[in-house]
Design a protein that fits this description.
The protein is α/β, with parallel strands linked by helices. The chain is built from eight helices and six strands, in the order αααββαααβαββαβ. Strands 4-3-5-6 form a four-stranded parallel beta sheet, sandwiched between helices. Strands 1-2 form a two-stranded antiparallel ribbon. It is globular, with a radius of gyration of 26 Å.
Length: 207
């Protein structure tokens, strides 16, 4: 009995399959084009445009309702151009020394007036310097960042997961160091001294 030869070549997609694939790709491309045409921005794009971290954008929206972005079919935030402009105004006012809780309810025009009044004030003899805090402990760093998000005088500028982190050898300069440690053993004292010396911090707190 004769045997049929089976080809090992990869099957070529049928015209119908290629048509479905092309239609899907075209639909996805059209969706992105529609977003750009409508002037809508996803949260990652807004973060880049405003220079604000994504967690801060979410926290300001959740706690203060500074903007109310639309939602995509996948429940992702979609910001309008006016949302982005308002966030830029709020950021500028916050950096000028206004606590976000006191300006979140202001209109865009009131924010512009507040910024103009701030710029017209005579400059103080010495500006208040930002206190740079290095935090050792990832969860503590996250809590402090959220707690200090509306302050312009103090900020978590760097963090380490723990005292044994390899990053300890290349820490950034800081004014203060806060270390989260449930127990403090003698072996950790050398790491604490090294951390303070490398960061140049004048203050160290262990919690």
């Amino acid at each position: 009995m004769a045997l049929k030869k089976v080809s090992s070549a990869t099957a070529t997609p049928s015209p119908k399959t290629r048509s479905r694939t092309k239609s899907r790709d075209t639909a996805q491309s059209a969706q992105l084009t529609d977003l750009r045409t409508a002037g809508l921005y996803r949260i990652a794009a807004v973060s880049r445009l405003t220079g604000m971290p994504v967690p801060t954008l979410r926290m300001w929206e959740r706690r203060y309702t500074v903007v109310s972005p639309a939602r995509s079919s996948g429940n992702g935030r979609l910001y309008s151009r006016s949302d982005v402009d308002r966030l830029l105004l709020l950021k500028a006012a916050s950096e000028a020394g206004h606590a976000i809780g006191t300006i979140a309810g202001l209109s865009d025009e009131q924010l512009r007036e507040r910024l103009q009044q701030t710029s017209l004030k005579p400059a103080v003899a010495t500006a208040q310097a930002l206190c740079r805090v290095l935090v050792c402990g990832s969860r503590l760093a996250e809590r402090l960042r959220e707690s200090w998000s509306d302050r312009s005088d103090i900020a978590v500028t760097a963090s380490l997961p723990n005292l044994s982190s390899p990053k300890l050898a290349k820490v950034q300069p800081a004014d203060a160091v806060i270390v989260e440690a449930s127990t403090l053993q003698i072996s950790a004292l050398a790491a604490l001294r090294q951390l303070r010396q490398r960061s140049g911090a004048k203050l160290m707190i262990v919690v």
